[in-house]
Amino acid sequence: MSEKCGAKCLITGTIKMKVAVIGAGTSGLASIKCCLDEGLQPVCFERSDDIGGLWRYTPEVEDGRASIYESVVTNTSKEMMCYSDFPFPEDYPNFLHNTKVVAYHRQYAERFGLLKYIQFKTLVCSVKKHPDFPRTGQWEVVTEKDGKKQASTFEAVMVCNGHHTDPHYPLEIFPGINTFKGKYFHSREYKTSNGFKGKRILVVGLGNSGADIAVELSRTASQVYLSTRRGCWVMSRVFDQGYPWDICYDTRFQTLLRNKLPTSTSIWLTEKKINEWFNHAHYGLQLRDSNHFKEPFVNDELPSRIICGYVVVKPTVTEFTETSVKFDDGSIEENIDVVVFATGYHYSFPFLDESIIKVDDNVNLYKSVFPKNLEKATLGVIGLIQPIGAIMTVSEMQARWITRVFKGLCKLPSQDGIQKDIELKQKICLKRFGKDYSLELDYIEYLEELAQEIGCKPNILGLLVTDPVLAFKLVFGPCTPAHYRLRGPGKWSMARKQIMTTYDRVLKPTRTRVVGTHENKSLSIVYGLGALCILSLLLALAMYTK
Ligand code: FAD
Ligand code: NAP
Fold first, then answer.
1. Over the stretch 259-268, which tens digit does the pLDDT of each residue have?
2. Domain membership flag for residue 263
């Protein structure tokens, strides 16, 4: 790549830059919209026959598309996970059943006229550099529809194929599994609890899937065991004063505290807060490594199922026999009928050559988006992240940035600069998460970084003078996607109102019975305290803008 390797503006006269978008899930739809916002010409290829990606539940597992169980409800709340200029309907609940998320995607696609840019039942088979790539940055994309292959040339590619499709299913590390006579399968195959009545079930792996499935099965099974290697923090959707957890957790002020304090102090505080709900050590869920962050998962019922004995937490599995399972504490559970491996997913880019992105558990993408060593930055990956916050919001921000890089309006640094940034991120990752590469990253820190590139990061210091109430909300309130529509490219005239009325929409679907003025009193106390907080605000801002 040249010293300034951002792609040159390829919009010449009326010819628009043609962009291939792979996949029509959350990330693909945001990408189409961002292409249109930037005057680019998107062509989206979706292998299935509809939009929505993983959110579209089907009773059968489909090849190449993520598969969810029927009961999936979001673990991030609607105010935090919406597209930044398109809120969820006000009467939708804070946490949404998958059917509502799909309905929302349809409303979004309709509102911005996205459907006409999507070619359904079209599989992207390969994406290769055009022979003239170093000069043009073009890509040759081969697609297949109804058995017919077609090659087309694109000026840029947005990779939105999702990363919850290929199961991480390491059967080889479980001695004896081949002799096990019961049924066993990966959580990708799990759809409903039908057929599991009265069974003795082991769920291996404690993430969101493992916890959801264990809880659901525990209502019909005779007993559920849940095996975890490292343990995990569990959070309830219902957080302080009953607000959604992310409304309380994902604020700039909280992020500032978490990131500026020494990691050990920050982890101690987080652990303390999380243990207020229930002591994880008492429930066998305590993290093995308490020196690093591990993404918590969200489940409201797990502690209750454990305390009632329907779910029993177990350590690492060491061996299966024909009918039993042994654990590394020496205990054995007999007469197991079913094992569900909720052991997560691998990501892959089957249509891309390894010279573009090498998936070896160590994908090093610049700002989690651009493969390094490309002569021209005309291909970006969207949604390959695991923040403690909504992936949807991050996908949209990435799409906003990428399309501006394609146009040459945002520049990338030199290869040296890219390498240095990757190394810096690895160091931070090692310190926070205990590994030098992880999809996990700090939600707000990352959004702010991309927003800075785009030019839509809110100017909090300036607002402190011109609009102090808004500034207060930006620092102490939930960092909702609309924060990034207040200024800069893509500015949305409704953004301020959207931010100021966040709590109204949070409460609207739950405050369905009129109940006096109790809340108003507590609100006035909060506002009273606000005056005191202004001092800390100034301090926070000074640190934040350093
Ligand atoms: P996907 O939704 O997986 O979409 C990818 C699309 O690409 C699919 O439609 C697929 O058919 C298509 N495709 C793939 N390969 C090709 C190809 N070669 N050619 C053509 N088309 C192709 N995130 C949150 O923010 N909040 C939540 O509450 C939340 N809950 C989740 C619950 C579950 C069970 C899972 C698995 C994930 C959850 N996530 C959540 C994360 C979720 O991954 C993101 O929110 C987001 O939906 C991902 O969208 P995507 O478009 O990147 O990928
Ligand atoms: P995940 O978050 O990757 O969790 C997989 C778990 O499997 C990890 O806890 C891991 O344990 C464990 N594991 C991996 N290999 C193992 C092995 N060999 N032996 C024992 N345990 C092993 O995967 P997921 O739960 O399927 O979630 C995937 C994504 O979907 C996440 O983004 C999640 O937030 C999302 N999701 C959301 C919802 C929801 O919104 N309700 C529901 C389901 C999933 P270690 O920690 O010990 O490595």
1. 889 888 988 9
2. no
